[in-house]
Amino acid sequence: MLLLWALSLHCFAQIQVSGQVSDEDGAPLAGVDVTAGNVKTRTDQAGRFSFIAPGKDRREVVLSKRGFQTYRQILAAADAPLYLRIILLPAERQLQEVQVLGDRDARLREQPLSVRAVDATFIRRNLGGSMMKTLERLPGVKTIGIGSGQSKPLIRGLGFNRVVVVDKGVKHEGQQWGADHGLEIDQFAAGRIEIVKGPASFLYGSDAIGGTIRIEPPAAPAADGLAGTFTGLAKSNNQLIGGSLQTALRHDKWFADGRFSYQDYGDYRVPATQVNVYNYPVALHRHQLRNTAGKERAVHLTAGYLDSTFRSVFFLSNTWNKSGFFANAHGLEPRRVDAAMHDARSHDILLPAQQVNHFKLLNRSSWQTGNQLFEAELGFQRNFRQEHSDYVNHGYMPAIYPRELAIPSDLERQFDKQVYSLNFRNTLAFERHRLTIGINTERQLNSIGGWSFLVPAFRQFSAGAFAVDNYQITGQLLLQTALRYDHVNFRSFGYSDWFATPVGSESLNLQRAAALGRKFNSLTWSAGLSYSPMPFFARLNVGRSFRVPIAKELAANGVNYHYFSYERGNSQLDPEQSYQADAGLGWKNSVWDITLSPYLNYFSNYIYLNPTADHDYSYGAGNQVFAYTQSRVLRYGLELELSRKIGGGRSIEVLGEYLHARQLSGSKKGFSLPFSPPPSVLFSLTQEFNNGNWLRDAFVSADYRLTAAQNNIVPPERKTPGSAVADLRAGATILAGKQPIGLNLQFRNVFDTKYFMHTSFYRLIDLPEMGRDVVLSISIPFHHQHKKNP
Amino acid sequence: MTALACLVLAGCSKDETPVDTTYPVIDLAFQGASPQQCGTFSRGQKISFKARFSDNVALGSYSVDVHHNFDHHSHSTEVSDCALAPVKVPVKPYLLIRNFPIAGNPAAYEAVTEFDIPADADPGDYHFLIRLTDREGWQTLKGISIKIN
User: Fold this and answer.
1) What is the pLDDT of residues A635-692, one digit of tens each?
2) What is the pLDDT of residue B78?
3) Of A42, A62, A330, A408, most Cβ neighbours within 10 A?
4) Is B73 in Cβ contact with A670 (below 8 Å)?
5) Domain boundary at A39, A70, A88, which?
6) Which residues of chain A have a CB within 8 Å of the CB of B131?
């Protein structure tokens, strides 16, 4: 610093430059080298720096620290002192969008939206049976699952088509509406996951009304040569064996990456000997859920070109999974459950079963020129889903499956979705603004198959244009405003039964769906302010979001034998509108890290599948009518994240969440919404070790989660009692010679507690959650680097 | 922030009328109730149906479904299962689906009706399934195993 002052005495037209450097989670970074011309300094413990820039030199400031990507910025000509707020990204994130414009996506804490990010280390330490199970530890994030392998996100109590999953910049499209459907994402292939809690329709359009999960791939290798990782996973409860092998090659500006992942697992076990499938008692063989075994395979090939201004990467991937449905709970009538056959082996997948293949080909490119950044994503994906089950003549279907029918007799349902996506964004940095304008377009082709009918085939085109401005009013105050317009064109096809139903004196092949065309337009907006005089920060965001009704909501007309429900769509539904206020308050320094995130949300027309008092004879085969309706809904809630370092490598953590939802109109006025998670709080204690030698990043950690009872229910839910579940985790990187080996061990549900999760698909059949589970994961990185010329 | 806090507090403090979360009840355990578990009926004659329904607030509707169980699907809500005849392939199984609204939404109702069994229906094991809803949409099921001779 003395040197700086000395220099300043000798120079003409100097300006003072100060600022603060943090990592992408907002933690201050000390010891960052800051260079401007021949001025050199370092950040202090609070990440702050300050120097006097010599006026005549080229005013480029360079920040570097080991383990982080080097940051460069040309300082604008100014007379007033400059204050810079800089976020350094980990060196391993090479595929990160171009950073030259500054802190593009990294200012998580400073965003007006509630964004939470987890990296590969979090994923390794919490690895569950599926990506969403892994993320479940975060407050405000739950899953709707059917056991081990399949689960889908529930953010602040909203799920299905109210949460968007964005994989490598492109919206991931599967059959999001089904509670028994998974996500079809390979969790081994995720490098970093960001969760936006709350609506982000202004960025992703329809569906991003409840939340967004952004999945980024792992980094391309930073240096020339060959590198890779082997990850292994084993789980005791369902005898899961899994693994993933990844290898990447980099040569100068080109790189290629390949990955193969697999998982095989058997029937999973619960701490119960009997469950009640809608009043029908079912005995479990050795605590096993009959026929819940599964397997997954995934292949990823990535190749691209990276230089300092232009990047273009192709991603090719195919994930495949097949898993059994709990045989006793599949459908209205658990027919043909041959207990002896199903119980003979726990690893075989018999009928009923589901099989899904998801293929993706994406390109992601960006080009930086001057103060402009152009980004584009282009993609094709196909989600092919089949549900197999022995033919069961529900309702008036013939007792014997007709031989002449072209549909295989064991194909209950088939959904084939093909999606073309194109996104384009242009970001312009000027003065204190960062303005992004962009478009998202998507075309979907959906066809159906199988002897059972729920949703018709449909086509959908959607296009949205948006503008988002980030205005850095001062170094600590950011204003974000956004405006978006969307247009969706929906067209579904007619469908008639292949069998006849007696109606009066006639026998008719009932038409279940007539051709339908709907067009939807929507204007959404968002405004948010964040104020972050470190270590304190606060944010507030208000906005309007929307969601276009999906095919099932518009045109369902069949029996869902999972729920004993005859589901009837409503072709007149309006797009769902939501208004949300979202706030955050926090304090982060080297000891404390506290974030409090309250929110308030009002839907003027929440689309809701309402169980009515009626039964339907002809279309519903005598089942209870569930009709799609719209009602006004008020939701509010709160999440708390608190962690404190207590010295000696110890830290405590408290994660809590509370959510309240209430319907304000319609026939369920006063009731909650389905799948509303009860309040819960997780206490965690962690001890970290480091012997500085062969043992690195070692930790032992205990989690204790208390969940309150959920008595706020709505038909057809059941009240769920409270629970207390303990988990233990431990992990370390061990150096075997020069070879690091990452080991992680988890004891989930240590005491084999019998408990229920309100949001589980199988909650309705009184099925407890998984019993004790020991999860071991191992990760072995390897690399071979070319010697660089001096 | 203040505005948000007020709204949240207002939401909390507002009195919430308690909603009905009680399932309706199907009672077949009284003198004269029919069908009974493992009950036997004859082709060309009638199945008599007599059940008592009750709810804490108001009943909605009920439906009755009779279908064959020649494939031995486990479907009974009763703990004791009946001795089933061997598995067989259906030829002309008896199938009945009927739904009945309960007029006036009373809190208690006794359903009394009869269903014809065609003389040429396949004899054998059948399921008699009763579904009952209340006005709020809560549903209770009862599955009874019967035999048709």
Assistant:
1) 999 999 999 999 888 999 999 999 999 999 999 999 999 999 999 999 999 999 887 7
2) 53
3) A330
4) no
5) A88
6) 564, 615, 622-624
Q: Verify that A23 and A164 share a domain, yes or no.
A: no
Q: State phi, psi for A550 to the nearest 5 degrees.
A: -90, 170
Contact (CB<8Å) A279/B77? yes
B67 interaction partners in chain A (CB closer than 8 Å): 393
- Nearest CA to A218 out of A89, A71, A94 is that of A94
Q: Output the domain CATH number for residue A64.
A: 2.60.40.10
A299 part of a folded domain: yes
Q: Does A715 touch chain B (CB under 8 A)?
A: yes
Task: Indicate yes or no: CB of B97 within 8 angstroms of CB of A328.
Answer: no
Same domain, A64 and A132: no
H-helix segments, A201-320? 201-204
CB A265 within 8 A of CB A259: no
Q: Which neighbouring-strand residues pair with A541?
A: A528, A582
Beta-carbon contacts of residue A737 (< 8 Å; ≥ 6 apart): none
Interface of A with B in 643-662 (CB under 8 A): 660, 662
Confidence bin at A312 (pLDDT 50/70/90) = very high
Q: Does residue A78 sit in the same domain as residue A118?
A: no
In terms of residue numbers, what domain contains A705? 114-505+518-785
Are B75 and A334 inside 8 Å of each other by CB? yes
pLDDT in tens, B101-139: 999 999 999 999 999 999 999 999 888 989 999 999 999
- Higher pLDDT: A105 or A371? It is A371
Give pLDDT, residue B44: 93
Q: Let me know: does A1 contact A562? Beta carbons within 8 Å.
A: no
Q: Which two tokens stand for residue A296?
A: 């997954």
Cβ contact A668–B101 (<8 Å): no
Residues A136 and A47 grouped into a single domain: no
Tell if the CB–CB gap between A611 and B139 is shorter than 8 Å. yes
The Cα–Cα gap between A286 and A268 comes to 10
A336 touches chain B (CB under 8 A): yes
* CA–CA min distance B61, chain A (Å): 6
Fold of the B21-148 domain: Immunoglobulin-like (2.60.40)
ipTM value for the complex: 0.88
The answer, for A502 touching chain B at a CB cutoff of 8 Å, is no
CB < 8 Å from B in window 718-747 of A:
719
Helix (H, G, I), strand (E, B) or coil at A694: coil
CB contact under 8 Å between A613 and B90, yes or no, is no
User: Structural domain tally of chain A?
Assistant: 2
User: Are residues A615 and B131, on separate chains, in Cβ contact within 8 Å?
Assistant: yes
The DSSP H or E segment spanning A7 is helix A2-10
